[in-house]
Structures are given as C-alpha cells and as structure tokens.
Specification:
The protein is of the alpha/beta class. Helices cover about 40% and strands about 15% of the residues.
Amino acid sequence: MTEAAGSDPVRILVLVPFPLDDQQLALRAAQLDAAPLPESVIVDFKPTKAAPANYVSHHDYVLADISMLESGLSAEADGYDAVCIDTVSDSAVSALRSMLDIPVIGPGRTQYAVASMLGRQFGIVTMWRQWFPIYHRVLNEIGLADRCAGIRSIDVAPNNRTLMAGKDHALPLLLEASQALIDDGADVICLGSTTMHEAHQHLQDHLPVPVINPGPLSYFVAEALIALGLTHSRRSFPRSLAPKPGMITAMLDAANRSETAVVHTTTETSS
C-alpha cells in the first residue's frame, strides 16, 4: 500500500503460520482486498520458518506457538507498530505480548468479542471438525464460550497453502452450515479460519445476519489501537524475568534446516 503524503506511515506485520512461497503468501495477502485501510497503513505478511503440518492436536499447538513467537520477536525492533496473527488459533498471542510493547492482535478473540457486540450469540462455521478444539481453547481463555451458539463443520479437508482454490463446492455447504447455526440461535456468523476469507462475501450476500471475516477485522483493530495509543496490559502479560529470544531463534533456525533437509531428501528419492 502507498503512503499518504505528509502523514507518518503505520506499519502492521501479519504473521502467517506456515513457511510459504511468494504465490502462497499472496493468497493470504489477498485478505487486504476486503480491508480498505487508509493509504498511510502499510501491511506486510511474514511466513514462519517452520510449522506443524496442521493444527489438530496439542503437539501442533505447541509447535505453532513457538514458530509464531519466533517469527514476531523482532517486529518492534523492525519498526512495526502492531502485529496481527493470521490464524484464529491466536497462536503465540500471549507469548508475543509478553515480549513486545506494540499491540498484538489475535483474529480469533477479536472476532468473538466483536460478534458479542453485534448480537446476543454467535456461531462458528468451519471447514474441518478437527479444528473444533482451537475454538474451544480461545473461547474458554477469553470467557466467551457461553456466547457461542454452536460450531458447525462441512468436513472438507482444508489446504493451508492453496486455501479455497478448487473448492467452489464448499460454498453451498458453508452456506447451509451457517444457516443451521442461525437456526440454532446465532445472530452473527464467524469464519473458523482466515484461510476461509474467500468465502466471506458469498456468505454475507446470502445470509440475513452479519458474517465476520477475522483477518481484515484484525487489521482494523490494530490500526485503531495504534491511533488511540493503546496496547496490552503488563498486569495481564508480564515480561519474562529471563527472556531468551536467542534460544528461540536458534530453535527455529534448526527446525528450518531440518525441514529443508527432509524436503530435499524426499525430492531426491522420488526423482
């Protein structure tokens, strides 16, 4: 995005939870099409060095937290004014808040809070049943589980790199699941993944309730907090008494080398 003349640029870093190539990263950055931010706001997307294959177990959650923590450690030193997490699992939000003074925004907790402002109850529509624990984890952490009318999945396997490409058949299924959530009492629909952003407009066009697109919403919240001079409370997110960013970076550098070696070996074997 271009800078507005005479204004100080605002820089937001979006942490993408997988190591992606430029084409795959562009699919994530397409969320900006639904976020008409001021021209003075610059948004950059940064992939992790390594990651779990998916987010379906506590093993995966730990790896995701570490990889996302490492990816965002230098954000403040690199001149960014806020960090947004590109997964509704809100991986590493609390850990990054303990290390950074700038706002760190999780799209999961953000969309549930906003949904609670827009209606009495909200529902979560998602691609995959295996993601349900992610939603319960965040809802319980922020105390909004009782505002969730339900979670419905269409059980279509997601692809964290190509997103919804080739999955047009999923749109009517997502619409049907969203309508079922409304029948269950949901006044607002939340998307269960930032990778579902391409389905947002279709759902909003065909549903009688607000549909929240968590990624773009998180960018606007980040911009608002920056403008208001607000960030997280140190009483809730105290600093470590013995921070070890060098150890965390070394761990992820080693993980990256290990993953790269596995891919290289697999390629040689298959060829």
